[in-house]
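Aim 2, interim progress. The first record below pairs a target sequence with its structure tokens.
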Amino acid sequence: MARKTPRKKKQTTKTRKKKKFKVDKTSEKKQAEKQAGKQEEQAKKEPGRPAESKKTEEAGKTGKTRPVKKEEKTVKKSKAKVNKDKIKAMFARERILTESSEEARLLYDKSAYGMVLEDGRVQLSLPEALYLLEKGKIKIISGRKALSPEDFIKKARKVEPNFWIRYCVFKDMRSRGYIVKTALKFGADFRVYDRGIRPGQDHARWIIFPVHEGETLTWYEFAAKNRVAHSTKKRLMMGIVDEEGDVTYYEIKWMRP
């Protein structure tokens, strides 16, 4: 008689199930390998990109919160510190007076801004104050309001109608590394010291008259400016300001035939 083989059938079903289980595992491995391959290709395309940023981006896509890095925390702290270190100053019509502090005196000691008063405060000219305001070094208050650069220019123009032309020349010379001071006692707008020389170490090299490109000068006015430079033993320079605020300089020398 032929033997029945029900057990063998059960074994075959078991083996089939095992095979199915193995196939599932291999498919998962292949998917993992494909994903790893994609990540490697992406890393090759963007070699300088840190792994942490990738993780945080993936977390953002899945809806998880992005962890704050230490670098971002330090940047925020440094910004807050910069805001605290701004020197307070008061708008006093034709001059700006800073608070009496060591930071304010360093403006004069290091970069020759303004002049130190007896009470320890630093007196700044209007162009100096706007330049430092734009650089974020000082905070200027008028009444109870902190002035923006635009607000400051409006107030300064009421005091000096030619303020913007003068400031364009001052800013350009300061950005070139020259120390620029007022020259009212010489009958000019500014006196300029050569690079590396501070007031008191040597005399100024130039006196500068800022002029708008559309402005006209008579020969008498031009000769008067030349005489001022000659009498003070300085070189005369004209700073011509165009509509865009760019400055072109002309140096004029006194010559005898």
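The second target in this work package is listed in the same format:
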Amino acid sequence: MGVAQVYLQALERAATIFERKRMEQVRVDKWLWAARFFRTRSAAAEAVLGGRVHVNGARVKPSKELRVGNTVEVTIRALKRTVEVMGVSDKRGPAPVAASLYLETPDSVRAREQDALERRLTRPPGTDLGPRPTKLDRRRLEALRRTHRRGRESS
């Protein structure tokens, strides 16, 4: 075996070790994007910088390395999701693969389902106002506002 072949084998071994090491940990912003919590990596990085992502209870930077077994708390809008990292990936794949990267805690699942139920049961804003005012109704409202303004100006 020549020196060149030994050198190539050593390079291949180093590359596989590096690849294995690299996939044992991944940046938190890349992981959030790959796990489909955010549509873009920049949105994930903004969320991390904004303090809406905590790893093991601590606020982190986007470059924080995430490993299997870490606990991640993600707040999206008003919903807080707590997940345990089951796998790492820096590539965004299909939804079933993304869902296999984490396991959501039972408390988080209950809170998310409760929030969805409350949103379904609440009435949209403005439904209690009734139908749109007619032209006559608008004229009466304007007259009422005018008399109200005159009353304030004279006092």
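Residues 55 and 67 are 10 Å apart (CA to CA). This observation will shape the mutagenesis plan for the next reporting period.
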